[in-house]
């Protein structure tokens, strides 16, 4: 029996970039499989319904064409199953694809995934999971970053990455440190924090290595906590996020753990893979080898 794959397209990803290259990507993948179902959806509910229909038809692989939000929905579908998962980046962040070494160019990425499909090349990677909630492949954040994410999602202008710059400025004036408690198997830590990140891989926000040492194959979550800082010090620290040097700041603490129970201000939102993941308190765990990825 031949390979049955589906290509899930979110046409609006990357300000319409996904829709523009969908035909080319589908043609490349179709040459590598026996059957390719094209799943085009504008909403999460529609995407889930169409992917379920594809799975019921006996799916071997799912390839998502889109950004990290689209990737997040595909992960919910494939996690804990033997369905291989692939990403063709066409969003504004593309952090999961970056961590896997997938080219940023959609056509090059599709060609590599087609080769992986044709030759059955895959590996298993870890995922994070919120207890009672969803899986995540990149980073779960809470505090300042999550507040910025929520504000940016609610804004209709500007479009693209500049929206996050505006959201940062809007949140910066009012945001303050809060007490958080991190309960991990090896230790419990209580501290004042402005933001925290639990990472399965290093990147979020379009290539920011918030947890530079995170590894999708070590069975652990990397934890970065930014403690109390003055607004001036925080502004000075923000540029170092792009280089990963923020972890050397005395107000930044890092940990590794199989699971983390986060207690703190219930007004603090959490976002995972850029999607809402609830409010504090939260229990977050690393799940080894939870996702089969095409490489």
From TrEMBL:
Keyword list, A-Z: ATP-binding, Kinase, Lipid biosynthesis, Lipid metabolism, Magnesium, Metal-binding, Nucleotide-binding, Phospholipid biosynthesis, Phospholipid metabolism, Transferase
GO molecular function: ATP binding; ATP-dependent diacylglycerol kinase activity; metal ion binding
GO cellular component entries: plasma membrane
Annotated ranges, domain DAGKc: 1-134
Signal peptide span: none
Essential cofactor(s): Mg(2+)
Pfam families the record matches: DAGK_cat (PF00781), YegS_C (PF19279)
Domain of life: Bacteria
InterPro entries, A to Z: ATP-NAD_kinase_N (IPR017438), Diacylglycerol/lipid_kinase (IPR005218), Diacylglycerol_kinase_cat_dom (IPR001206), Lipid_Phosphate_FormReg (IPR050187), NAD/diacylglycerol_kinase_sf (IPR016064), YegS/DAGK_C (IPR045540)
GO biological process terms on file: phospholipid biosynthetic process
Family: Belongs to the diacylglycerol/lipid kinase family.
Record's protein name: Diacylglycerol kinase
